[in-house]
Structures are given as structure tokens and as C-alpha cells.
Specification:
Radius of gyration: 28 Å
Strand order of the largest sheet: 4-6-5-8-10-9
Mean pLDDT: 88
CATH class: Alpha Beta
Low-confidence stretches: none
CATH architecture: 3-Layer(aba) Sandwich
Helix content: 40-55%
Bound molecules: uracil
Order of helices and strands: HEHEHHEEEHHEEHEHHEEHHH
Number of domains: 1
Strand content: 15-25%
């Protein structure tokens, strides 16, 4: 009898029942079992009570506070750490990597998500792709402290048995990250945005799987701000790219420099032409 009861309760638990109500007859039987004096109840009733469904949490709104851009970005960073929609995905790692650089910058670079090096140092673009990006900035006569670097997704996407291997963020991860990127861009209102690679570009432009090759060489807009798409720096690393691929990326950067009315020397104009 006790085994039957336990079996019944387990079944109910699997259905989501969290407690049961007992009438006096059922209580007497249980008291008897506890006292090892079985009492045979005339008629006992155990009624399953379903758990009350929890009221759905209202969707949280991002709140931007602060006077300066740096303070406003800091308020976003603070909220991103335990942002429920990121957590609810269950597919991102714990360590947040938000953004780096100048919150007053005229030029913003947007990547896809941090990798293992970025996660270790808590800063975007510090691994091999970041070193390539530093080289690109140097060729433009810029430093990290003059631009703003961010990623659509603020946590490293997780994988089974993950060591230093990284994966691109999914559409769902990008959708959550875009809430933050929109606010970052609204705060900075830069003169120009560069999307690094197809994943970031598709996320920013609300597209799906459009290759970089089809998005380059023209101006797009994000929140009314001119946006240029170029290759992800890791593409150049992966492909050990020829001067012709480097030149394509460099032409994208020349277009950005022209847009920002930056001085461009003849030497800069000729980079990777041979
Ligand atoms: N790739 C990205 O897109 N972002 C980083 O921060 C590092 C690598």
C-alpha cells in the first residue's frame, strides 16, 4: 500500500503537482504507518493539487542613467551582467565582455561576440582578431582609445567540451544582444559604424545570412547612422589572405575615413595595391 502511494505521488510530481491535500481518513492511515500500527481507514481521499502557474515575469526594460556618455554606457554594462533574456537563453557563458574605447567616439566598430581571449581578459577584440583590428586602426592613424569597440552579443557563446574553441552567435543570441547595441548607438550617436563580418552585419541590418561580399562597397544605415560592412578581421587570419583580400578591407576603411573627413595620405591610399 505504501509503495502504491509513493508511486502515485511520484507520478503526480512528474505532472507538476507540488503538494497534496489529505482528508482526515488519509491522515489517520499515515499516522498509523508512522506509528507502525496500520489503521485501515474506511474511506480515505488523497487529492492532487496542481502547482499554481507562476505569473510570467514582465519583460524588463533597459534603463539608461547618467549624465555623460561614459556613465550611460556604464549603466547598460551594469544591467547586461544579469540581463534575464541573456540568462534565459542558457547558451552563453558567465563572464560578460561589454565594450571598450571612447564613449564619445565618432567611429564605432561592431563585432559578433567575444572569444576565449576576450573572455579571459574581459575586453572585446584582444585575441588574434583583435590584434589584426589594432593593425587596421594603426593604418587609419587611429588608436583604440579614439574609437568604440563593441560586440552584438556580450557573452561568449558556449559549446560542449569548450576550451579555446569559439562559435558564432545564433540568431536568438543576436536578437537579445541587439537591444544593447541599439542603446549603445543611441548614446554615442557616432558619425559612422563599421560592421565587422557577416554575422554582425546581418544582425545590425536585420538580415539573414547575407554574405559580406554582397553587403560591402555601399553605405547602409543603422538608426539613421551610416554603416559600412567589411570582413571580420579573423577572416583575414583564417584565409592567410592575399593582398587582394586585404585591399578590399582597406578600401572599406578608406571609404570610412573619407566619410569622417579624415586626412588620407597618398601612402595610405596605396596600401595593398601590389
Ligand atoms: N570576434 C568578435 O567578433 N569580437 C571579439 O571581441 C573578438 C573576436
Amino acid at each position: 500500500m505504501i509503495d502504491e502511494l509513493i508511486g502515485y505521488l511520484r507520478q503526480e510530481q512528474q505532472k507538476g503537482v507540488t503538494h497534496v491535500e489529505l482528508d482526515e481518513g488519509a491522515r489517520q492511515v499515515l499516522r498509523g504507518w508512522v506509528a507502525s500500527k496500520p489503521v485501515v481507514a474506511k474511506k480515505s481521499v488523497v487529492t492532487a493539487v496542481k502547482a499554481e502557474p507562476k505569473p510570467a515575469e514582465p519583460a524588463r526594460e533597459l534603463v539608461v542613467v547618467g549624465n555623460t556618455n561614459a556613465e550611460k554606457i556604464a549603466s547598460l554594462r551594469q544591467q547586461a551582467k544579469d540581463w534575464p533574456a541573456f540568462k534565459a537563453l542558457g547558451s552563453l557563458r558567465e563572464m560578460m565582455v561589454f565594450s571598450v574605447g571612447n564613449a564619445e567616439a565618432k567611429l564605432v566598430f561592431v563585432g559578433e561576440a567575444p572569444g576565449s581571449e576576450e573572455e579571459r581578459k574581459g575586453e572585446p577584440f584582444v585575441g588574434p582578431a583583435g590584434q589584426k583590428l589594432d593593425g587596421i586602426l594603426k593604418a587609419m592613424n587611429l588608436t583604440r582609445s579614439e574609437v568604440y569597440l563593441t560586440n552584438v552579443v556580450k557573452f561568449r557563446p558556449s559549446m560542449p567540451q569548450q576550451t579555446t574553441n569559439n562559435r558564432a552567435p545564433t540568431a536568438a543570441e543576436m536578437a537579445v544582444g541587439m537591444e544593447f547595441v541599439k542603446r549603445e548607438i543611441e548614446i554615442l550617436r557616432p558619425q559612422c559604424i563599421v560592421a565587422l563580418g557577416g554575422t554582425a552585419a546581418n544582425g545590425l541590418l536585420g538580415m539573414e545570412s547575407v554574405p559580406v561580399g554582397r553587403l560591402r562597397e555601399e553605405w547602409h544605415e543603422f538608426l539613421g547612422i551610416p554603416l559600412r560592412v567589411t570582413f571580420h578581421p579573423s577572416y583575414l587570419l583564417r584565409t592567410q589572405s592575399s593582398n587582394s583580400e586585404k585591399r578590399k578591407l582597406w578600401e572599406d576603411m578608406l571609404a570610412v575615413m573619407e566619410r569622417l573627413q579624415m586626412p588620407i595620405s597618398d601612402k595610405q591610399r596605396g596600401f595593398f595595391l601590389t
